[in-house]
């Protein structure tokens, strides 16, 4: 799906404006929001995909040993209040060298190269989750609420166009968290299909080493955040606007170039 299809009803409307009409990126800074994260992860990883055993989480809250060292974002659907997705950024630790999930599944030396990746500046992208159940629940909330049938149909159609780009909202959350935490590099394990989708949007993760078997085939990857964003700026400026909040979460040099172009 092309970016233009998102804004088909108004081709002159910017992606960032259309996206935030429908969704809000929520930093997780309360106990209640953190519980929402864990419950959404339970829904995705235990119920929808079966990656984790639901019997291990009797309170329907999926957690692991990396959560105490992590920060999180949620993606909230404005009209219904439903939380549609979540992602976490695992922060570096100094008490152990192998402090990320990727260290458990690959021995590739690059992921322990502290010259290329200074330990305090590396974070792990993890639990990148978008609920399939959200689409069904969205339909439930499309019942009559005083709008005409035509208005309801238009509203549903526009939301369907934006739903495939939930991923971009989670990437925007990751970028914001990384900037706030001083994280300059990412480690992650990515499904091949997601890696291809990200690439189509100008979001380039760098594969490293062979594919691994971890809940299906996964590709170990890394990214230097400044380069990741610079490539997005060059290849897909509309997406760069969204994931950097119009340059507020990006190195100053690129933001200056952007502001000079839009002024």
Describe the 3D structure.
- It contains eleven helices and eight strands.
- With 263 residues, it is α+β, with helices and mostly antiparallel strands.
- It has a single domain (3-262), classed as Aminopeptidase.
- β7 (212-213) and β8 form a beta hairpin.
Please supply descriptive tags for the structure shown above.
single chain; alpha+beta; Aminopeptidase; eight-stranded mixed β-sheet; 11 helices; disordered N terminus; PEP-CTERM/exosortase system-associated acyltransferase
Secondary-structure blueprint:
Blueprint: H1 3-6, H2 15-22, E1 23-27, H3 31-48, E2 70-77, E3 83-90, H4 102-105, E4 122-130, H5 133-140, H6 149-162, H7 166-181, E5 185-190, H8 192-200, E6 206-207, E7 212-213, E8 217-224, H9 225-235, H10 237-243, H11 252-262
Parallel strand pairs: 4-5
Antiparallel strand pairs: 1-2, 2-3, 3-4, 5-8, 6-8, 7-8
């Amino acid at each position: 799906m092309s970016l233009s299809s998102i804004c088909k009803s108004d081709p002159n409307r910017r992606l960032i404006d259309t996206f935030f009409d429908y969704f809000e990126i929520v930093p997780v800074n309360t106990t209640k929001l953190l519980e929402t994260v864990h419950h959404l992860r339970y829904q995705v990883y235990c119920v929808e995909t079966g990656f984790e055993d639901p019997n291990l989480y009797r309170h329907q809250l999926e957690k692991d040993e990396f959560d105490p060292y992590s920060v999180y974002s949620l993606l909230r659907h404005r009209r219904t209040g439903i939380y549609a997705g979540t992602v976490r950024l695992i922060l570096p630790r100094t008490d152990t060298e192998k402090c990320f999930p990727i260290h458990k599944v690959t021995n590739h030396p690059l992921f322990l190269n502290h010259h290329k990746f200074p330990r305090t500046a590396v974070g792990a992208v993890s639990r990148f989750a978008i609920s399939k159940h959200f689409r069904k629940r969205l339909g439930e909330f499309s019942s009559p609420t005083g709008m005409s049938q035509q208005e309801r149909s238009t509203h549903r159609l526009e939301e369907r166009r934006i739903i495939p780009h939930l991923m971009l909202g989670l990437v925007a959350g990751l970028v914001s968290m990384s900037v706030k935490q001083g994280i300059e590099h990412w480690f992650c394990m990515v499904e091949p299909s997601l890696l291809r989708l990200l690439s189509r949007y100008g979001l380039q993760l760098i594969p490293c080493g062979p594919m691994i078997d971890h809940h299906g085939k996964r590709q170990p990857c890394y990214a230097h955040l400044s380069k990741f964003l610079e490539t997005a700026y060059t290849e897909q400026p509309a997406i760069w606007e969204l994931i950097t909040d119009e340059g507020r979460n990006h190195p100053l040099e690129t933001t200056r170039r952007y502001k000079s172009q839009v002024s």
